[in-house]
C-alpha cells in the first residue's frame, strides 16, 4: 500500500509545477497558495510513503503531521478565499493570517516530544498517541506542547474545511444567472470534495489502522482536487460567445 502515497506525492509535485507555471503567467495570488498546498501535500504523502514502507521516524511523522494534518487544508482554504474575493485588502489579511498560523504550527510541531513506542506499534500512528499530552488521570490546567501539536490538526483543519464548504456554497449562490461563474463553482466544489476524500480516508484509515483505505484515498483525493483546480482556473468564454453586432448600412 506504500505505492499509493508515493503516487500521490508524484502527482502532487507534477501538479504543483503546472499551477506554479499558471501563477507565473497570470499572477493570481490564489494560484500561489494552491501551489504551496500541493507541495505540502506532496511532502506529507512522501513522508507517509516512507513511514508505511519502513517504520516511522520522528522526523517523518513531524513532516506528515505538519504539512498533511495541520497546514494543507488551511492553504487550500486561503486560496479559495482569494479566488472568491479578489480585493487587495483581503489578500493582505489572508497573507498575515497564514504567516502567523504557519509559524505557530511549525514551532509547536518542531518542539513537541513524540512517543517512539507509538511510532513502532502502528503503521499509521495517530497524533494523539504520538504527541503525548496530559495523562488521562491528570487534570491539566494548561495544555502541554505535545497536546497542542495534536489539537492543532483539529483546530486548523476543521476551520479551513468549513471555509472550503462555505466557499462552494457561496460560489453556487453567486453563479445564479451568471454562466461565466460555472467553472469556478465546479472547481471549488471539486476542491472541497477532494479534501473531503482525503479527510475521511486519513481519519478512517489512521483511526482503524487500515493502510489500504488511507493510501487509496490519498491518491483519489489529490486526483479530484487536481480536476477542481483545473476547472476553477479556466478562463471564461462567456464574452467570446456574445454575438457581434454589424454596423448599420
Main attributes?
249 residues; Rhopdopsin 7-helix transmembrane proteins; 10 helices
If you compute it from the alpha carbons, what radius of gyration comes out, rounded to the nearest whole angstrom? Answer: 20 Å
**CATH hierarchy: architecture:** Up-down Bundle
Bulk shape: globular
Count of domains: 1
Proportion of beta-strand residues: under 5%
The CATH first-level class comes to Mainly Alpha
Largest sheet: none
Order of helices and strands: HHHHHHHHHH
Q: Give the strand tally.
A: 0
Estimate the mean pLDDT confidence: 80
Residue stretches low in confidence (pLDDT < 50, at least 5 long) are 134-143, 236-249
Structural class: mainly alpha
Number of helices: 10
User: Could you estimate the helical fraction of the residues in percent?
Assistant: over 70%
The name CATH uses for the topology is: Rhopdopsin 7-helix transmembrane proteins
Distance N to C terminus: 71 Å
Amino acid at each position: 500500500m506504500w505505492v499509493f502515497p508515493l503516487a500521490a506525492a508524484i502527482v502532487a509535485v507534477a501538479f504543483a509545477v503546472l499551477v506554479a507555471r499558471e501563477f507565473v503567467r497570470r499572477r493570481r495570488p490564489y494560484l500561489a497558495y494552491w501551489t504551496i498546498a500541493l507541495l505540502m501535500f506532496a511532502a506529507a504523502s512522501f513522508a507517509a510513503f516512507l513511514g508505511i514502507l519502513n517504520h516511522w521516524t520522528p522526523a517523518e511523522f513531524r513532516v506528515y503531521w505538519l504539512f498533511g494534518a495541520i497546514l494543507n487544508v488551511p492553504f487550500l482554504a486561503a486560496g479559495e478565499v482569494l479566488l472568491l474575493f479578489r480585493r487587495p485588502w483581503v489578500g493582505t489579511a489572508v497573507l498575515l493570517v497564514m504567516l502567523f498560523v504557519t509559524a505557530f504550527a511549525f514551532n509547536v510541531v518542531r518542539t513537541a516530544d513524540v512517543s517512539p513506542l507509538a511510532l513502532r506499534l502502528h503503521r499509521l500512528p495517530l497524533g494523539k498517541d504520538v504527541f503525548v499530552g496530559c495523562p488521562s488521570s491528570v487534570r491539566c490546567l494548561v495544555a502541554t506542547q505535545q497536546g497542542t501539536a495534536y489539537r492543532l490538526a483539529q483546530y486548523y483543519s476543521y476551520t479551513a474545511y468549513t471555509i472550503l464548504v462555505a466557499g462552494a456554497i457561496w460560489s453556487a449562490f453567486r453563479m445564479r444567472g451568471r454562466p461565466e461563474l460555472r467553472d469556478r463553482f465546479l472547481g471549488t466544489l471539486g476542491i472541497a470534495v477532494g479534501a473531503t476524500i482525503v479527510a475521511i480516508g486519513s481519519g478512517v484509515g489512521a483511526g482503524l489502522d487500515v493502510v489500504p483505505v488511507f493510501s487509496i484515498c490519498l491518491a483519489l483525493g489529490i486526483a479530484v482536487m487536481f480536476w477542481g483546480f483545473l476547472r476553477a482556473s479556466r478562463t471564461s468564454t462567456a464574452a467570446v460567445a456574445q454575438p457581434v453586432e454589424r454596423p448599420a448600412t
